[in-house]
Write a structure and sequence with these properties.
By secondary structure, the chain is of the alpha/beta class. The protein has helices at about 40-50, 50-60, 115-150, 185-195, 205-215, 220-225; strands spanning about 1-5, 10-15, 20-25, 30-35, 75, 80-90, 95-100, 100-105, 155-160, 165, 170-175. It is elongated and about 70 Å long.
Length: about 230
């Protein structure tokens, strides 16, 4: 593996079935697949021939790449604790919850860049995120509802990966415990979004009027900011 200032970490992998050099863009760099008898130098020479296209593609994916990921050396902040991964001598992934940190010990050399690895890591984090969300979010929802004059019938904390929150016609609010991964002001935005649905169930002009009322006319701005984040 080598580091390139423009493209990030470049990992060269020999693929016995490959007939030509190919490049896959990862969130932190590139993976270059080499056919048998090719060398990393061959791979780098190919990367350089398409460098401009790769840089443009990575820039276009910058918006998408803000999906929250776990990797060694990167600190993931939640509302009440940090998630930190590091390599260890363990043979399997181990989770250790401390007061203000969730430490994930990884088998040495584990590749965290692929989707299956991320899914396994977040599956382990889910237990701790759910517990914290159940402790922290109900009070926040109640406080914002009282401040803004809303009422709701019930609140459920769920593991949804398709949406941050939802509200039913019966004024029942559902929130994903992955909300804890957002900055505090965006957590409030999502809660207010669902509270406004207790007044208006669609996303028409009246709904956005309510949203502007409770966000100081920042509804669309905050909505654009929220779209920068994706549920793991």
């Amino acid at each position: 593996m080598l580091y390139d200032a423009d493209l990030g970490n470049i990992d060269f992998v020999v693929n016995s079935r490959a007939r030509r050099i190919s490049v896959r863009i990862l969130y932190d760099g590139l993976r270059v697949s080499l056919p048998p008898f090719s060398t990393p130098s061959d791979g780098m020479a190919f990367v350089n021939t398409v460098r401009k296209k790769l840089k443009a593609r990575k820039e276009s994916l910058k918006y998408e790449s803000e999906q929250i990921r776990i990797s060694p050396g990167k600190l993931v902040k939640t509302l009440s604790f940090d998630i930190e991964a590091q390599y260890s001598s363990r043979r399997a992934i181990f989770f250790l919850k401390q007061p203000d940190r969730l430490l994930i010990e990884l088998p040495h050399g584990m590749d965290c860049s692929e989707a299956p690895a991320q899914a396994k890591l977040w599956e382990g984090c889910a237990y701790f995120l759910r517990k914290e969300a159940q402790k922290l979010l109900p009070g926040r929802v109640k406080k914002l509802a009282e401040q803004q004059g809303f009422s709701f019938s019930s609140l459920r904390i769920q593991s949804s990966k398709t949406r941050w929150g939802s509200c039913s016609a019966r004024k029942s609010i559902n929130l994903s415990f992955f909300l804890l991964l957002l900055p505090p002001h965006l957590i409030d935005y999502v809660i207010l979004h669902e509270l406004c649905h207790t007044k208006v169930m669609n996303h028409g002009p009246e709904f956005w009027m309510w949203m502007d009322r409770v966000t100081g006319n920042r509804a669309k701005e905050l909505n654009r900011e929220l779209k920068r984040y994706r549920i793991p």
